[in-house]
Design a protein that fits this description.
single chain, alpha+beta, Double Stranded RNA Binding Domain, four-stranded mixed β-sheet, 43% helix
């Protein structure tokens, strides 16, 4: 009795899935559910960030770090310094821009709540772009959407770096 090529592929794929599931593999960009949370990440408190973009970033970080909104004792606090800049690109002969770029830079520090000392510092950067059109309202909406996309990207990058920080902290014990 001979196996068909498709049956062999299916068997290899099934075995690969079992091996990956057993090693704790989680897809990096998979959607998060309320069951996917790490108590050590949830122990990071996000300090308030000023202005509306800061509020958007703060909320996204809180959702990433503790999606289940579980009650966990705080061990660390992350302070964030956020800067946003806009530059016009695609300048036409009449000195009007057709495209703009929004750059979001963030510097963040993790403090140990017991000692109050900074124990981790990092930076992240994201760029969003949008087209400028003759309607000022539509251009502003596009600019806000580009900024929000960049803030979400920054939040995901910060979450990844904080997860690596937490993993290192677990290894130091």
């Amino acid at each position: 009795m001979s196996w068909s090529s498709a049956a062999r592929r299916l068997t290899v794929f099934a075995m690969l899935c079992v091996v990956l599931a057993g090693c704790g593999f989680h897809p990096l960009y998979a959607p998060k559910s309320s069951n996917d949370w790490d108590p050590d990440l949830a122990a990071i408190r996000v300090a308030p960030i000023k202005d509306r973009p800061g509020q958007i970033l703060e909320l996204a970080l809180r959702e990433n770090l503790n999606p289940a909104a579980a009650k966990v004792a705080a061990r660390w606090r992350v302070n964030t310094d956020l800067t946003i800049s806009r530059s016009d690109l695609g300048i036409q002969r009449n000195a009007t821009a057709t495209t703009s770029e929004i750059t979001v830079n963030v510097r963040f520090m993790v403090f140990d709540l017991k000692s109050g000392t900074p124990i981790y510092t990092s930076t992240a950067r994201a760029v969003g772009d949008f087209d400028q059109i003759y309607d000022a309202y539509a251009t502003q909406v596009a600019a806000d959407a580009a900024r929000d996309r960049a803030l979400r990207q920054i939040s995901d990058e910060m979450t990844l770096r904080l997860a690596l920080f937490v993993r290192k902290q677990r290894g130091d014990k």
